[in-house]
Every structure is written in structure tokens, then in C-alpha cells.
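# step 3/5: fold
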Amino acid sequence: MRHTRCVTTTIDQDHPAGVAITTDLWRTAVVYQIYPRSFADSNGDGTGDLPGITSRMPYLRSLGVDAIWLSPFYPSALADGGYDVDDHRDVDPRLGTLDDFDAMVTALHAADIKVIIDIVPNHTSNRHPWFEQALAAGRGSLERDRYLFRDGLGGEQPPNDWESLFGGSAWAPAGDGQWYFHCFAAEQPDLNWENEAVREDFRRTVRFWADRGVDGFRIDVAHGLRKDLSEPYPPWGEIADVIRPDGSHPLWDRDDVHEIYADWRRIFDSYDPPRFAVGEASVHPTRRARYASAESLGQAFNFAMQDADWRPEDYRQVINGGLADMIDFASTTSWLLGCHDTPRVATRYGLPLDDDRPAQQVARDWLLADGTTPQLDTSRGERRARAAIMILLALPGSTYIYQGDELGLQEVADLPREVLEDPMARRSTKEKGRDGCRVPLPWSAEGPSYGFGQQIAHLPQPEWFAAYAVSVQEADPDSTLNLYRGALALRPELFPGDDFRWIESESSVLHFARPGGVRCITNFGAEPVALPAGEVLLSSAQLDHGRLPGDSTVWLRVP
């Protein structure tokens, strides 16, 4: 359930302009997410790497982002795209070395771009030395207490009927009558955060990367660390719905998780400047602000925008929710349209709207059909995605952009089953997985991997990627890439501070005011609409005789 409160304005409200934990930079930052294995390949092995990121520094600088968020680059068997971590304080040799990491950070800082990295505290991989020690040490050992081992039922059955988020049982056998718990893949055993050794090891990890110049941390599964595995276990049917408003779920969003982040906050604040953090917390909207508080992480992703359908009422409701957090809880807010876990925004918005299923589910069902049904309208999807990013960039708060969205990339739906890497595709009959949004980027219109590297990429790129290549779009002043560059260049000047006010308009139009007479107007309808008198600053589509076409956004300065 989303916020239902109607926020008409933030002007003269007690919002967090002076909250020290979220400096002006992080309150308004535009952060670009890089999925390292699919960004740029420097050595021709088909996999993106850290030197590849460094080689594309001119692109990142020209895009105009304030920071990058780097998805996991740690040693990993890639059972879950790198989120199965063998060592939280090293670099996967296939992606580079610690020296390569240091060189990348230095280059980013020289370009005035901050660095955020993923921390994965909920689990390790099953190849982590701790887990190998736990299996060898046996039941009742100190080594096993770092994880969540429990006796099976009669030794042959798991302790209960709880299910993994990737499908199947959440328990895997240890081989001696005990079972270990894993919220995700069996290759990702959950850690026991009641164990002081676990806590101390992650304190060390945070300091390790902060000492290397990392500016901030994105906390993976931030709502999942503390768990209540006391018996009797509730049956899965009673806890399958993980979103609760009161912190009562045994596995997710428990109140005591914030003890961990209060501890980390003391570490973050010991640096000058203080280190930033943002939580991936899929929680009830009324509980999101806890993660964004100054005593906890300082910011939390607002996934509601990512889940919104292309309807003005959906957008208004989501924006109201984010602004209500900002006002009521003195926290900043964040906005994003996509990430490495969801179908591409241009595809979601190009599929038909369904009254019974949200756009996310329509896209996932479309993926299961390999993109054959329903019919995708790529032009409509890109048009709407262009309009949507201009809404986000005009709002108070920070914005997160997933690599390739600035190119208007569509989801690659017809990847053959034999090349899929996502464990979700292997374990679930209801999901094809997330590989379609993780296909390596096209940098040029030619070459075996469209400029990604010298060889074929680790996930096959379709021929239509050539038309979306960076080199092609740089030459087109009306391209989606150049729209992003233009919007990001204007944003700091046009949208300072947190002041915001809704402007009443016709039902198909979303219209709000920011300081200095700047307006953001979006036409969700099919027919062009009249605009108020003023100076057009930027538009996602060419105006129709001074009117705003359907599925378009304009930034306007009124007298």
C-alpha cells in the first residue's frame, strides 16, 4: 500500500535542509549505476572490468553525473551476478586488481565523480572461507554460528517449509542432518547477525573500502539482516507476504536491524567528509524513512517510482509519498526508474497498460514469452521513458540512473535459455530472470560486441543494439543520450533546494512548480495540450505548434 497523503507543497515545511548527514551533494546527487561485467571490456575476454570503466571516464564526465554506484566486483562464482561474494575485501581477478580499483577511484575523483560501492552484508557465497570452515567444523561449532544452521526434520527434511526468493526451499542440506538458511540462492548462505564476529568483520570491510577512497555504500538487502528463527516456525503461508507495516515479519524489516546501521553510522561519520550510505530496502512505505534517517543509513531507495505505471495518478501518488517522507521524517528522498533487477524502463512503458497487472508484471510475463506477446511498441516506450526521466530530474531529492537507460535501451527478451546467467531463471518457472537488462552496452555500431570489447560479449547482444550505440547517439542532437546530457547540465541551476508545489491541471497532465518560476509539465494523454506562456528550457519531444505532445515532458520558465 502506498502513501495516500496529498502533499500540495513543500514550501515553508520543516524539511531537512539542514540535516548534516545528507549534505547538499547527496540530497540532490545524480548517481549512475554501473554493472561492471557489462559496461566495458578492456582485455577482450568478453567480460567488463575495472580498467574498462576507467577507459570510459570521458563518457561519464560528459554525461554529467555526480557519482557512480558500482555493483559487486568481488571474487565470485557468479551464482547471482556477483552478489554471491567470496571475499568482501578484494577484486575478482577477472575484473582486475586492487591496484586497478585504486586507479579507477583516482580517475573518477579527478573527474569530480564520487564513488559508491555495493556492500552485501546479508550473506556470503558458499565458497567463502567462513562457510567452508562451517561445513567442515560440524554442528554446534563456533564456525557454524556465523551462519544460520538448524537441524532438519528427521534429518531428511528441511526445518520448515519456508521458500527462497529465487524459488524452491530456503534451506539447503549440510550433509550431516543439519540445514543452512538462504533467502536467495543456495550458493548464498545467510549470515547470523547475532554473532559478534560477523559484525566486526563488516566493520572492517566498511573501513577497508572507505580508507581506499570510497565515498559511499549501497547496502544490499538492507532490510534483511536481522532474523527471528525461533521455534515454533510459522508456516510459509503466513509469512509469504513480506511487506508489513509493523516490523513483525521474522525475516524482513525488523526494528533491530537499525542497531547495525547506527553502529555503521558512527564509522561513516568518523571520516571527513562523512561517508554516504543508501539502503536497498523493499519495505512498507511508512517504514522506508527509518532507513533514510540520520541515525541509520541516511538515504533509502524509493522503489515505488520504479513500480509506477505510466499514468498521472500513479506518478502523483508516488511523488506524494516521497515528499511526505521528506517532510514528516526529516529525511531525503531518492527516485529511480530502473536498475539491474528490473526490466528496462523503455520496455515496461512500451507494453500495453493492464488494469489487472502492473507494468512490471506485464514485462515479466512478456519476457517469459521471449518478447513475443503482448506486442511491444518500442517508439512509445522510449518516448515515455524520455518524459519520465525529465520528471525525476525535476523533483527534490536524488536520482539514480541505470547504465543504458540514457541510451533508451530496450530489454533483450529473446536470450536463449542456454546463455542465461541469472539463478532466478534456473529456479523459477514464473521468471525468465534479469539477464535481459544486463546485456553489455553498445558503444559503437560495429565490431563483434559493438565496442564493448574486442570479442563477443558474455551475454549476446542483438543486432538492433547498433542503432542505440553511443557513437550513433552522440551524432544525433535529438537522441536520448543527448537529452540526458542536456537535462543533467541544466538540473543544478534549475532545481535547487526542496521547494515544490503542485499546479492544478487537466486530468492527463502532471504539472508542478520549482523555484524561480520553473515548471515541469508532463502530458500523459494522446492529444497535444496547451502550455502556459513562458520560455521552453528543455523538452523530451518536439512541440506541436507550441503545444506539448502526448507522452512528453517540458521544462518551462514562466514570467
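# step 4/5: annotate
The longest strand covers residues 114-119.
# step 5/5: archive (pending)
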